[in-house]
Design brief:
globular, about 325 residues, Rossmann fold, alpha/beta, 7-stranded parallel beta sheet
Length: about 325
Amino acid sequence: MRVLLTGGCGDLGKVLAKRLTNRGDEAVLLDVADPHRDTPGEFIRGSVLDRPQLSTWFSNCDVVVHIAAWHGIHEFKKQKDAYEFFDLNIRGTFEVFEASVRARVGGVILISSTSIDEPDTVYGNSKIISEQFASFYATHHKLKTITLRPRAFIPHCNRVVYNNYVEWAKWFWKGAVHIDDVAQSVGRSIDYLDSRLGRDTKRADEESEHARRKPAESEDAERDVCGNLILTVDGAYEYSKDEFLNWDREGPGTTFKSHFPEYYDLALKHGLPVDQRPRKLDISRTTSSIGYVPQYSVRNLLEELSKYGASGPPV
């Protein structure tokens, strides 16, 4: 498949371009920034705000993965204001969906965020509006759409955000998803869309009409029939449900130590909060819908910290 990545030269775009190329897909990177020297794929210098060009760039693509956006960190550090968030995150998302319909793109994968739970932030609100565009185009234009809601996934090597690996580890410790797992969820979403793009138009029309006439069991069920899935993307955890409910029942740090006794002293050395219970999200729907199974957990983090120290693994 030919897959266009908006914001394709950013952190996730670089990981996805390699993943897509390795599995035999064509990656097209649309970005205003230059690609990294070892990033594979076709590069198009351009912006999602370039309305006259978008339909042309999208015209021979099977799927568009819409990544381009300002993030919560840009709001937190006051690097971008509300106008800039509106231009890229909101108007840019509209431009991508409208151009996808006009170019007859098979499907769109929207990279949203779990920050939709923070509607009082500019970033969270921009993602809420972006998801509304996805639902609108899925329902009224029959555009096959998947909305992924990953937790923050900026990698440890991004020195604009993290000074070193330990700083990133303290953030990940709270409960998070690794960028490689986000890339996995995108790859599986592409496969999901691909398996449905072959449906004949009549069948799709019949299903959409059926959805309008039959009351849906839930909002998600209705969106499924219309062609839009909304899926949460979280990382992997070693802890059981009982351990989450009865965290550190035997004392501070005991739940962590019961799983990682060999790394207990290492964690303390680097100031990692061994008594902190991570926040785990429900990804059962993501697993059942697209087969997503996260691979990276705190154990992987500890192994990397043990091997490479505060500098982290090489990029």
